[in-house]
Amino acid sequence: MTIEFATRYRQRSHIPPEPGKPYFIEKGMGDRAHLFTDMFTIYAGGEQTENTFNFFTCEGPKGDIIPAHSHPDTYEVFYITDGAVRLFVEDTEGEQYEKLLTVGDFGFVPKNCPHAYRIERHHSRIVGVAAGPGGTFERFFENLGTPTDELSPPQRPFVPDPRKFGTVPQRYDVTFLPDHQWRTGN
């Protein structure tokens, strides 16, 4: 049996809305959202951690590179549990890095560093953790994307209304970089 809570984001959630309460969530049963071709599942966020970190997964098929972006106040971790993901990162001096991450590999993106990823194999999964002085950004996924009760990535890509790109990211420490160019070769 699992307990369901009502939060300011959802009618039903397995995540308690307040900090200081232990809880457990079965695989895939966190708060889920579709964005582009991926499914994001949130297991813990700012409300539960007093805005110190969030924990989420991203699952999706082999696909295109996601839009380049940065987080002015948030550090982000990429840990691969299934498949393969190519991580693109640019440091604050402008040097670019690219690395194919496979099962068990780890990538770290400091705050203010442009980055993007591309899922290289079908059925890949990223475990993400983000933390920083500005709070957490986990609710970005369902506010730019669409909340879902499905347990798998979308059948058809969910492309947000273009007007959302100008408003939603600002609330969640996400800065899109539409003109960013990756010079790493892939």
From TrEMBL:
SUPFAM superfamilies in the cross-refs:
RmlC-like cupins
Q: Is Oxidoreductase among this UniProt entry's keywords? A: yes
- By its UniProt entry, which Pfam families does this protein fall under? Cupin_2 (PF07883)
Entry EC no(s)? 1.13.11.24
Tree of life domain = Bacteria
Where would I find the Cupin type-2 domain in this sequence?
61-119
Q: What GO terms are given for molecular function?
A: quercetin 2,3-dioxygenase activity
Does the UniProt entry include the keyword Zinc? no
Keywords (A to Z) from UniProt: Oxidoreductase
Recorded protein name is: Quercetin 2,3-dioxygenase
Q: Name its species.
A: Streptomyces griseoviridis
Q: What is the lineage of its organism?
A: Bacteria, Bacillati, Actinomycetota, Actinomycetes, Kitasatosporales
